[in-house]
Specification:
Blueprint (H helix, E strand, L loop, with lengths): L21 E4 L4 E4 L2 E2 H7 L2 H10 L5 H13 L5 H10 L5 H13 L10 H22 L13 H9 L6 H13 L7 H11 L4 H12 L7 H12 L5 H10 L17 H12 L6 H21 L8 H11 L7 H21 L29
Antiparallel strand pairs: 1-2, 2-3
Helix pairs in contact: 1-8, 2-16, 3-6, 4-6, 5-6, 5-10, 6-7, 6-16, 7-8, 8-13, 8-15, 8-16, 9-10, 9-16, 10-16, 11-15, 13-15, 14-15
């Protein structure tokens, strides 16, 4: 049997769904959530409002926003089973893995396939923020701090993580980052969520699938890898030599290149603006990190831009994460806290016209082959 087919490696350039949630304008370097420019949303909106926007593809009215934020805050509290799971794993598992386990636990016994299951979506968005804070808090040897109903989502994350003491400016930075990372089309993690949801698995398990896909250094793990890279370089003066030797060894420079953007990542522009706005809040570590990152972008663009490779958002976000006190090994996890809103939105949208995702593969091995008993096989 002979089959002539073209295999699209990595599904590059292949449209797998239609969606009203996100538009990535690759020609003009812009990102839109349900038609709204993410730059304007970062400037004027809040994460709670953006979560509503992604789930409904429209902005809420005043009464709808009040109800939505109330439901989010009501879902922030953790149960003893959550705390016990965190205490059991905080010392031996990474933050993202624990988040995924907690999501699966939350979905135990739940059914999937309901496009109107906003209750589950809201609960997932709220819970992942509390899970994240509790993991960081308990891992540091401290007791769980319950959320406050008078604080915003971003404020509660820092409040719970830091034991009640947080800076208002840091909460503003986190809120902006949550908005910026809430949605980005169909990267590997979102596709993993949709594939899982297409089987009519529950929403929580589908989100957990996205979280685990996010662990890879070529996706969400890139921010942690970018941070570690900056530490290895050490100082701005060492950047040119480091870049040249890295390229000579044909190794990847983290924070550069993107499957979708062939121009400068618009999210990186927003992050740089946020860094400039909050520059006075930088400590000595953040300043050193900024100097290395700035030198890496400047020199990296000289040699990589002619090849169509430009800086992406993961080059710059570690600076803001460190400014607000996120542990480096949890950068990817805070990304997941944000992206849960986008994952949930895509899952509910896909369920409106669900079809099991089952692609084909092109077999390239030998066939048919005759079985040879073990005792007759020789090592060649």
């Amino acid at each position: 049997m002979s089959i002539h087919a073209h295999v699209f490696k990595g599904l590059e350039g292949v449209y797998v769904i239609d969606s009203a949630i996100c538009l990535i304008d690759t020609e003009n370097g812009a990102l839109y959530y349900a038609g709204y420019d993410v730059r304007e949303l970062v400037e004027k909106s809040s994460f709670e409002e953006v979560a509503f926007l992604l789930l409904h593809q429209r902005l809420p009215t005043k009464s709808e926003f009040k109800e939505f934020t109330g439901r989010l805050r009501a879902s922030l509290d953790l149960e003893s089973r959550h705390i016990e799971t965190i205490r059991r794993h905080a010392g031996n598992l990474d933050t993202l893995t624990i988040l995924a386990e907690l999501m699966v636990l939350e979905g135990s016994g739940k059914k999937g396939g309901e496009p109107g299951d906003l209750e589950a979506a809201i609960n997932a968005i709220a819970k992942v923020g509390s899970f994240f804070s509790a993991i960081i808090r308990i891992r540091s040897g401290e007791d769980y701090v319950p959320p406050r109903k008078d604080l915003s989502f971003a404020e509660n994350i820092l409040y719970m993580m830091k034991g009640g003491v947080y800076r208002k400016e840091h909460a503003e930075i986190l809120d902006d980052l949550l908005i910026l990372h809430a949605e980005h089309g169909i990267p590997a993690s979102t596709f993993a969520s949709i594939v899982t949801a297409s089987t009519l698995s529950d929403l929580y398990s589908s989100i957990a699938a996205g979280m685990l896909a996010l662990k890879g250094p070529l996706h969400g793990g890139a921010s942690e890898a970018s941070y570690a890279q900056a530490l290895r370089i050490g100082s701005a003066e060492k950047v040119p030599q480091w870049v040249e030797s890295t390229l000579a060894e044909k190794k990847k420079i983290m924070g550069f290149g993107h499957r979708v953007y062939k121009i400068y990542d618009p999210r990186a522009t927003v992050v740089k603006q946020l860094i400039a706005r909050h520059a006075a809040a930088m400590d000595s570590e953040a300043k050193r990190l900024y100097e290395v990152t700035k030198a890496l972008e400047d020199y990296g663009q000289k040699v990589l831009a002619p090849r169509g490779i430009y800086p992406n958002v993961d080059l710059w976000t570690p600076i803001l994460y460190r400014m607000i006190g996120i542990p480096p090994d949890s950068f990817t996890a805070v990304f997941a806290v944000s992206r849960t809103a986008g994952w949930a939105a895509h899952i509910l949208e896909y369920w409106r016209d669900n079809k099991l995702i089952r692609p084909l593969h092109l077999y390239v091995g030998e066939h048919p082959r005759k079985y040879l008993p073990l005792e007759l096989r020789e090592v060649s």
